[in-house]
Amino acid sequence: MISVQQALQFTKNHTKTTPKTIPLPLSESLGFIIAKDITSPISMPPFRQSAMDGYALGSIDDMTFKLIGEVKAGDEKEILLHKGEAIRIFTGAPVPKTAKAVIMQEKVTVSNITITLQETARLHSNIRPAGEQIEKGDIALSKGTEITPAGIGYLASLGITTITVYQKPTIAIIATGNELVPPGQTLAHGQIYESNSVMLAATLAKSGFTDIVTHKVADDYEATRQLLDQMINTHDVVLISGGISVGDYDFVGKALGALNVKEVFYKVKQKPGKPLYFAKKEDKTIFALPGNPASSLSCFYIYVLPSLLKISGYRNYELSWRTVISDSEYTKKGQRAEFLKAHMENEKVTILDGQASSMLRSFALANAIVYLPEDISKVHVGDTVQVINLP
């Protein structure tokens, strides 16, 4: 059995960013990671641009100007301004090449075809120079950058419609257990509703992973081996829920061994989630998660999600730990490190009731996980604790 820190280090060391890249329409690229530098095909703005509604001036040492025209956003006409001349101009409109400044309309008195300035204009004031934001050929966004809504807007403003991103992994979820039936069916005695695959699929989708399939397999060795073989061959990541313990009807470990999967570790000195299993087969990643729902979800957040983010090219894929004040008392019942469902508000965290590995109700109310290392046995109100914010 290894420690939490060892398990985190092993998953990090055995997880690599995918070499697979795909072209994606910019409109579909939200949440993906750029796989190669994006250079700008144009300067932005592509022309001298007015920063406000006002008047473009042909000189700055005059106070009265003759109005000779108007330019609004989208106009293609070019006007040459001479000393003592001005044009009405609007925000975003192209500024004439010979204009010395733009003065806001609130600083101008208009009389027929002349304007009089209420204050002296400053050279180049209120003019956005061509290429102020970026020059043609410069790097707009670099490799490794996550595409955000603002990033999509920025690249669209440069006329870019397609980008190259790292391909997100295809993921198979396998739920094991004779006792599991789909929600909606009538429960027979001894049966429970299967929730882990639904929960994991929802958690994956919330984190931007949508290429997912789910399967259920009974507690049968050959059926388990065949399904695992098929899913490992056809998917980048396989998540198995249950069947990894050492009971008479836990066949996942035996089946994975028969498939020549390389075990990285099995069992972590933690609560919940002790029987966590992590393995590789060539470039495929396999996690066998405990069957208890809260254990399964805790292990997903702590180990699986960072691995998926690293595979997908994220720079910031590791857990983000914070130190906050505990608003709760809590006493450990063993020597293992613990991950506790919690709710954080106003920089204080409350450890929730219902910490059993089978209980999801408290997880449904949680927005954070409190981590207690092996050497901490008790938490008092006012103590500082380490916290991971949930996505």
Description of the molecule:
The protein is α/β, with parallel strands linked by helices and 391 residues long. The chain folds into 4 domains: 4-19 and 168-311, 3-Layer(aba) Sandwich (Molybdenum Cofactor Biosythetic Enzyme, Chain A), CATH 3.40.980.10; 31-43 and 135-166, Molybdopterin biosynthesis moea protein, domain 2; 49-128, Molybdopterin biosynthesis moeA protein, domain 3 (Beta Complex); 321-389, MoeA, C-terminal, domain IV (Beta-clip, Beta Barrel). It has helices at 4-13, 149-157, 196-206, 221-234, 252-258, 293-311, 361-365; strands at residues 21-25, 38-39, 49-50, 54-57, 64-71, 85-89, 101-104, 108-111, 114-117, 127-128, 139-141, 162-166, 171-176, 180-181, 192-193, 212-217, 237-241, 262-266, 270-271, 277-281, 284-289, 321-326, 330-331, 337-345, 348-351, 368-372, 378-379, 384-389. The chain has a 6-stranded mixed beta sheet with strand order 7-4-6-5-9-8, with no helix packed on it. Strands 16-13-17-21-20-18 form a 6-stranded mixed beta sheet, sandwiched between helices. Helix 1 (4-13) packs parallel to helix 6.
Gap from first CA to last CA: 28 Å
How are strands sequenced across the largest beta sheet?
A: 7-4-6-5-9-8
- The multimeric state of the shown protein is single chain
Number of DSSP-assigned strands: 28
Number of helices: 7
- Per DSSP, what share of the residues sits in E-state strands of 2 or more residues? 25-35%
Mean pLDDT metric: 95
Query: Any idea of the CATH topology of the largest domain?
Result: Molybdenum Cofactor Biosythetic Enzyme, Chain A
Radius of gyration: 30 Å
Detail the poorly predicted runs.
Answer: none
| Share of residues in helices | 10-25%
Level-1 CATH class name of the largest domain: Alpha Beta
Fourth CATH level, the homologous superfamily of the largest domain: MoaB/Mog-like domain
**Largest sheet, strands/sense/barrel:** 6 strands, mixed
Tertiary shape: elongated
Based on secondary structure, the structural category is: alpha/beta
- Please, how many domains? 4
CATH architecture verdict of the largest domain: 3-Layer(aba) Sandwich
